[in-house]
């Protein structure tokens, strides 16, 4: 499919791409407001947004919040060793490559046909040091060398739900093994009232990391609606003041919870183990209307 680098021509001429992938029906829809930007949907659920001309641009609110974590994971411009569990349109890997040149990244995306579609229609910068593995996220994480990663991002959804085996203390043990002692873990979680899944995930991560913070829309934290929350963890102190400032300055303002308030938020929920783990809850149909 031919593309123009002229934004006006691109907006007028480029049409959506639709293709069956392992995870369902994928659609790449051009962004009418940005010349070479696309939104990826799987079975109608928005997954990723990519601007090929400006990969540092993050459209989705949850991706901007993870972007703040990436920005603060090391001094500006310093290359990272990053692992992305869940690839989608490779938005966050592109972001790291654009904002931290010479970073070395591994992306684990189980849907091999989706990877082929994205590589074909939204090609990566050939100079970006991004390796993509098409395998299960936990299995792929198991192949990362001990202490290799500065950053691990978990953003894995199958049918809009996070698989159970990526929600347990045993999974977090693998995360810790692959991280450097100074490393940072960020997970995209989705939940709605009564927030049992979110509370359990906070308790689970708290059982394995010394420092935690949660970035989310206040309405989600109050149990008023279904939405995303970004859980950030490390064994070193997190840059809470700057995370809070950036989250508050987003177009969709978010709150940062940490410390005693975050502990109280769990309501005494126990850590999740492999034996008790279940998939995250399915979003209500109204979320994607």
UniProtKB/TrEMBL annotation:
Amino acid composition bias (Low complexity), ranges on this chain: 266-280
Coiled coil: none
Record keywords, A-Z: Polyamine biosynthesis
Record flagged with keyword Lipid biosynthesis: no
InterPro entries tied to this protein: SAM-dependent_MTases_sf (IPR029063)
GO aspect biological process, one term: polyamine biosynthetic process
Disordered: annotated segments: 262-289
NCBIfam families in alphabetical order: MFS_SpdSyn (NF037959)
Protein's UniProt name: Spermine synthase
Organism of this sequence: Streptomyces malaysiense
Lineage summary: Bacteria, Bacillati, Actinomycetota, Actinomycetes, Kitasatosporales
């Amino acid at each position: 499919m031919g593309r123009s680098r002229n934004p006006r021509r691109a907006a007028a001429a480029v049409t959506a791409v639709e293709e069956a992938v392992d995870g369902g029906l994928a659609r790449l829809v051009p962004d009418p407001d940005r010349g070479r930007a696309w939104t990826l949907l799987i079975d109608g659920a928005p997954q990723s947004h990519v601007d090929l001309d400006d990969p540092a641009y993050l459209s989705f609110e949850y991706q901007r919040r993870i972007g703040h974590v990436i920005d603060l994971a090391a001094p500006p411009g310093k290359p990272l060793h990053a692992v992305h569990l869940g690839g989608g349109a490779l938005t966050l890997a592109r972001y790291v490559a654009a904002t931290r040149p010479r970073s070395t990244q591994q992306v684990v995306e189980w849907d091999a046909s989706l990877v082929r579609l994205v590589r074909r229609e939204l090609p990566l910068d050939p100079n970006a040091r991004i390796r993509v593995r098409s395998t299960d996220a936990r299995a792929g994480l198991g192949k990362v060398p001990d202490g290799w990663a500065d950053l691990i991002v978990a953003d894995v959804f199958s049918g809009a739900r996070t698989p159970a085996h990526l929600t347990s203390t045993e999974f977090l043990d693998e995360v810790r093994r692959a991280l450097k002692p100074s490393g940072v873990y960020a997970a995209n979680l989705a939940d709605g009232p009564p927030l049992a899944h979110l509370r359990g995930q906070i308790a689970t991560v708290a059982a394995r990391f010394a420092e935690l913070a949660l970035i989310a829309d206040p309405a989600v934290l109050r149990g008023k609606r279904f939405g995303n929350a970004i859980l950030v963890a490390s064994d070193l102190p997190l840059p809470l003041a700057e995370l809070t400032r950036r989250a508050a300055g987003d177009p969709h303002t978010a709150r940062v919870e940490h410390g005693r308030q975050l502990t109280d938020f769990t309501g005494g929920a126990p850590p999740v183990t492999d034996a008790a783990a279940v998939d995250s809850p399915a979003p209500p149909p109204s979320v994607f209307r």
